[in-house]
Design brief:
The protein has 306 residues and is α/β, with parallel strands linked by helices. It has eleven helices and nine strands. Helix 2 packs across helix 11 and helix 5 packs across helix 6.
């Protein structure tokens, strides 16, 4: 059976640590691995992308492989072909398939019928590749993840959900502050083996107290345009700015998965200032995802000791 990466819960805590270790090695020596030599990886984009497309295309090339970018209007999926049939065909041509889409059910159906690994480049409920880059960035900045407190402020969306899942698996304490109607589910299932904790707040000041990093995301995500003004009004008190950073731990820095809207979820002063690791996050997508592709396709590379 192929390995898949759909939510991040497929990783054990030891595998997550080893994957981040490997990502640091690949960042230090970007052309040191040819794990994808003479292999092709399909990347299906049913949602717009900047960082995901750049990081996967360049990363696959650096691993010696060939990325095949497939847009929604180029596939028969857009004309009613089933995910099952698509998976059966793709499995005959490529070694892995990445998918950036809306419905998680479509991703799950592809994985059910694929004989090659399927990995999640973004769905409505999960964004695990982003979370890997986030943890890599935190590890670089702080030296460890165990016991670190990170506060996510804003909409309890796919980014927050994946940060909670993989952050707690890494032993972090993840605090999420959201207004009523926008919070993560209270009964969110954390991965098996998670040693960290998840705390939900309504007050952003409570969430950021003692936090070493503050994280935010856009208030109006793809598909939320019809309720944009309602969302902006509800989330107005959840902006990451200098005042909120001052309420966190000394030396705390800001994070954002991008694209950003300065003046909404984050101030321009923080986004472009010295107290952020946002552009490191954007770069670290490539390094973390290269380690992920090795984990999916080259068993033993970067794996924890037996």
């Amino acid at each position: 059976m192929p390995r898949h990466f759909l939510t991040g819960a497929e990783l054990t805590a030891a595998e997550l640590t080893a994957l981040l270790d490997r990502a640091l090695e690949l960042k230090a020596a970007p052309l040191s691995s040819q794990a994808l030599a003479d292999k092709s990886v399909a990347l299906i984009f049913q949602k717009p992308s900047t960082r995901t497309r750049l990081s996967f295309e360049v990363g696959i090339h650096e691993l010696g492989g060939q990325p095949l970018v497939l847009r929604a209007d180029e596939l028969q999926l857009s004309r009613g072909e089933s995910p099952r049939d698509t998976a059966l065909v793709l499995s005959r041509h490529v070694c892995a398939v990445g998918v950036r889409t809306g419905a998680d059910a479509m991703l799950a159906e592809l994985a059910e019928h694929s004989s090659v690994p399927i990995f999640n480049m973004l769905t409505a409920l999960h964004h695990p590749c982003q979370a890997l880059a986030d943890l890599l960035t935190l590890r670089e900045a702080l030296g460890t993840l165990e016991g670190v407190r990170i506060a996510y402020v804003g909409d309890g969306n796919n980014v927050a959900r994946s940060l909670a899942a993989l952050g707690t698996l890494a032993g972090m304490h993840v605090a999420v502050a959201s207004p009523p109607g926008y919070a993560l589910e209270e009964d969110l299932a954390l991965p098996a083996g998670a040693s960290g904790s998840l705390m939900l707040y309504a007050d952003p000041l409570e969430a950021v107290a003692g936090a070493q990093a503050l994280y935010t995301d856009v208030w109006v995500s793809m598909g939320d345009e019809a309720t944009a003004e309602k969302r902006r009004a509800a989330l107005a008190a959840y902006r990451v700015d200098d005042a909120l950073l001052a309420a966190a731990a000394p030396g705390a820095f800001a994070m954002h998965d991008l694209p950003a809207h300065p003046g909404e979820e984050i101030s321009a002063e923080v986004l472009y200032g010295d107290r952020q690791r946002i552009w490191d996050q954007a770069e670290n997508r490539r390094h973390a995802q290269k380690a992920l592709l090795e984990w999916l396709l080259a068993p033993g590379v970067g794996s924890p000791p037996a």
